Amino acid sequence: AQSVSQHNHHVILSEAASLELGCNYSYGGTVNLFWYVQYPGQHLQLLLKYFSGDPLVKGIKGFEAEFIKSKFSFNLRKPSVQWSDTAEYFCAVRGNNRLAFGKGNQVVVIP
Amino acid sequence: EAGVAQSPRYKIIEKRQSVAFWCNPISGHATLYWYQQILGQGPKLLIQFQNNGVVDDSQLPKDRFSAERLKGVDSTLKIQPAKLEDSAVYLCASSLDQGQGYTFGSGTRLTVV
């Protein structure tokens, strides 16, 4: 079964700063990759996904992620964060029809 | 389109009691998932249905948890008897098929005291 690692569980940064969240997975087969966001009091929402093709994926709200197959990574980035980006971010990997999540990154953006 | 509906939103029960959660997926979505999200952790898959058949229940604690999706549409997840460590948010998700993205419901927050 696959596993997903997210580091730096708590991230605090100021508005306009750049954000990068790391995601590494372990699975030897074909994978689909996802980043989900959970705003306070809301349900999980899909930010972006990678199935195939261009490894640089652009999602909603200015987020992007890059799939690096050799590093088993799918890092999330945003060049300039806003206060409204305060949320928990989850990386998820589907392999063998099972979707596994990382533990999440709690991101707090200070105005 | 309407999202994934879950009820109740919150539930508080005493240990050893039983509880049931309900999920209505997006219309036409054949695949339905139940996840358990314990505070500070990512969601963990409990069970996956394809129409009314179980695809994966390898992480479901079958001694106390059960789930069904009798008509291939809505689903119920039951815990009997509940333990303190079952306190978590129970998320339901659905997808058009196993190869597509997932849509999550708002979840049911269970507190076992």
What helical percentage do the residues of chain A reach? Answer: under 10%
Q: Helicity range of the residues of chain B?
A: under 10%
What is the strand content of chain A? over 45%
| Structural category of chain A | mainly beta
Give the uncertain stretches of chain A in residue-range form.
Answer: none
**How many angstroms does the end-to-end distance of chain B come to?**
37 Å
Mean pLDDT of chain B, to the nearest integer, reads 92
Per DSSP, what share of the residues of chain B sits in E-state strands of 2 or more residues? Answer: over 45%
Q: What is the helix tally of chain A?
A: 0
Order of helices and strands of chain B: EEEEEEEEEEE
Largest sheet of chain A: 6 strands, mixed
Strand element count of chain A: 12
- Oligomerization: heterodimer
Structure summary, number of beta strands of chain B:
11
Q: Please provide the ordered H/E string of secondary-structure elements of chain A.
A: EEEEEEEEEEEE
Kindly name the structural category of chain B. Answer: mainly beta
What's the story with the biggest beta sheet of chain B? 7 strands, mixed
Distance between the ends of chain A = 41 Å
**Largest Cβ-defined interface:** A-B, 21 and 22 residues
Question: Summary?
Answer:
The complex is a heterodimer of chains A (111) and B (113). Chain A has 111 residues and is mainly beta.
Task: Detail the topology: elements first, then pairings.
The complex is a heterodimer of chains A (111) and B (113).
Chain A: E1 3-5, E2 10-14, E3 19-21, E4 24-26, E5 32-38, E6 45-50, E7 56-58, E8 64-68, E9 73-78, E10 87-95, E11 98-101, E12 105-110
Parallel strand pairs in A: 2-12
Antiparallel strand pairs in A: 1-4, 3-9, 5-6, 5-10, 7-8, 8-9, 10-11, 10-12
Chain B: E1 5-7, E2 10-13, E3 19-24, E4 31-37, E5 44-50, E6 53-56, E7 65-68, E8 75-79, E9 88-95, E10 103-104, E11 108-112
Features:
heterodimer; A: 111 residues; mainly beta; 6-stranded mixed β-sheet; 12 strands; globular; B: 113 residues; 7-stranded mixed β-sheet; 4-stranded antiparallel β-sheet; 11 strands; 0% helix
